[in-house]
Amino acid sequence: MTASASPATATKNRIGATIIEARDVGKVFSVNQNSLTVFDGLSYSVRAGSFLSIVGPSGCGKSTLLKLIAGLETPTSGEIFFEGRKVAGPARGMIYVFQQYSKSIFPWRTVIENIDFGLQSHRKMPRKHARDLCMEYIRLVGLDGYENYFPYQLSGGMQQRVVIARALICEPKVLLMDEPFSAVDALTRAILQELILKIWDAIPVTILFVTHDVEEAVFLSSHIFSLTKAPARIHQDLDVDLAWPRDPIRTRAEPVFTQTRQKLFASIFLQEKGGLAGKPAAGAEP
Length: 286
Hints:
- A hairpin with a 2-residue loop joins β2 and β3.
- The chain is globular, with a radius of gyration of 19 Å.
- The protein has a domain at 1-93 and 174-183 and 203-286: P-loop containing nucleotide triphosphate hydrolases (Rossmann fold, 3-Layer(aba) Sandwich).
- The chain has helices at 62-70, 101-104, 111-122, 127-140, 156-168, 186-202, 214-220, 255-272; strands at residues 2-3, 18-31, 34-47, 51-55, 77-82, 85-86, 94-97, 174-178, 206-210, 223-227, 234-239.
- The model is unreliable at 4-10 and 276-286 (pLDDT under 50).
- The strands form 2 sheets. A 6-stranded mixed sheet has the order 7-8-9-4-10-11, with helices on both faces. A 5-stranded mixed sheet has the order 1-3-2-5-6, with helices on one face.
- The termini are close together.
- It has 286 residues and is an alpha/beta fold.
- It is 33% helix and 24% strand.
- It is built from 8 helices and 11 strands.
């Protein structure tokens, strides 16, 4: 299965060749002296420049899949490749943004110092050049004027912007985001959704985005993988046929948005109720 944009969208020209590929990946955890199989023979590919969201029922392995891609977890079987090289640990060129931003931001550093930490850990450069570059990313995430604030002086949404800027300044080819907006209120979440799309439009980066929110996935994505219950496989592999740029109000009013959201929600809801138990519903896409 290949993540790509629909020809009807303006993203068509930015989608490139395969950047991530999984071949027959299996992942088994030991839980209370029992084995829990999360994946068994999972194969897929992701194309450069796409915005791929991963959805599915609770406990299906969405975050585990992201960690396997990032090299933070090791497959029990099978292989994952990034730009043709086997992933055998955290790969240079991929940055992981965790759900709990408050635990990944440094409270004793200002906004610009937090972002500079990401830069200096990636590449060394003269201080003035580093500061100028940090300010560029501060402006990119809409925090200009807050560069000398400490995290405790910022809202949750603003702290998450700091984390995103710190990740982007490393110039990753792939940005892995694990439910990054789940801890903020609905209005802030909508603002951050719009922000991440503007960033994706401005910077040549592939985004893999885990979310429980089907509506969020449809609004943000060029492509969506919907997983089954564990042992998970890709139950739905969808192009999101919505025009770009996306508008927080108008896009959600489009019939295609509603149809895609309902299709995904129905599949996940039935699985949560135990109706599918890891098997496709009658008439569902493979």
